[in-house]
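Handout, tutorial session.
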Amino acid sequence: MSTLWIGFIVFVALLLFLDLFVLNKEDHVPRTREALKWTAMWTAIGLSFSAVIWLAYGNGWIASELSPQQATINYLTGYLVELSLSMDNVFVIALIFKYFKVPAKYQHRVLFWGILGAIVFRLLMILAGVYLLEQFDWMFYVFGLLLLYSAANLFGQEDDTPPAENPIIVFIRRLVPVTKSYHGNHFWIKRKGIRAATPLFIALMMVETTDVIFAIDSIPAILGITTDPFIVFSSNIMAILGLRSLYFVLSSMMDKFGHLKYSLALILVFVGVKMLLHQVWHAPDWVSLVVIFVLLTGGVVVSLVMPPEGKEIV
């Protein structure tokens, strides 16, 4: 593993440590203004990291055939794709917290540990995805079709399966006892000498499995832009680091962005078609960045101007 990889992992670990143990060591419910401030900070960090990408690929800190310009554009495009798809994830997480009645002041803690687990899972999935694309050209078609299938699901009916019926949750409840009530911010407690999981742990597992499901969409989408593992991983992680603050901003407004899912579906269609046509169509890197930005912005604007029926903006 190169120095750049090690440095990036240490940098992310430092950010997570400061977030949980310094800046948010007390359980509380972030107000909208506070959440907006943190969202702006995480977004600034994510966008500013493009300067590191420019320097790294311009000075040979990592072995790659990409020019600094190409690497930076690919990073920003991947960052934007993951950020846009994370919005859909935020709405699902809000439903999970509502279903399990997770106290608002403990939601940040669940999101923190959920994202920590997501970093590990995504690194493994990214390395596996890059390996498959490098070894088997036909995997481009598999990933492309997977993205089109995911887009069709977004256009179709919502999944109304109760969270409690998630196979992972059912499996956990068969393995260990689960308390009926919350016990502060604890995931596990000792009850009559026996360790038992709390509903907070169940909610965490639900968030983790949900993230893995969304990663099945987002990682192939970024691999459709570039197969450079460091760019895929760094853009992915820098985007989801701000997921906690983004959650507190968007969860209260989730009904106001009813048309956003169509933008997300079109983004998946665009990247999926791009992967399917990778041997005959080689669009400039900036084209993907512009198309994805326009689709995402369009979905937000249309949702605000023409809110879904019964969801007027007030």
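The second record follows below. Compare its token runs with those of the first.
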Amino acid sequence: MHMPAKTIGRYIPQWKSTSSIIYVLLAISYLLIIVLFGLVASQGSSKWQQQLESMYPCGTKSREWKHFDGACYFFSIQQVIWHTAKSHCEEQKSELIVITNQYEQNFVQAETRGQRYWIGLSDHNDEGQWRWVDSTDYRTSFKNWSEGEPNDHSSNEDCAEISQGGKWNDISCNTKIFYVCKKSLPS
């Protein structure tokens, strides 16, 4: 059956307004879905962030740092002289390690696996006057020297290392060995 042109014309405007309403409703629904998805994702991302922080308390962008007893430790894979090691630690907003107790000594000794590493202790400014890089009082602080050390052998040993047995030893600051940096946990 054929409808006159006037009759068809009556239905077209109604169809256009109905489709416009449908498009508006679809757009609003789409926006609501996006907003709801964003809310759910933001709650999930904070949980995800908490999980990452528990896995990497020293920061997710610094996975090479190890966490122990409220601090972060970096064990280098590059061998350098003592002054370069000190500078590398400072560049990473940390300092050469100051070992404060037997528990920390045990942790560092286990992590160094029998290798030699610089620690933040030297007497290069004043022979026989050992100083920690953070100004911790050497006289009253923890010590773990090998027997007979420090001995300033050949008058050329002004920097401290953790030696292969885990004990401390004084050696020439120009010896190239690994190093340990330490910093507080990020806040």
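Points raised in discussion: Residues 65-184 form a domain with the Mannose-Binding Protein A; Chain A fold (CATH 3.10.100.10).
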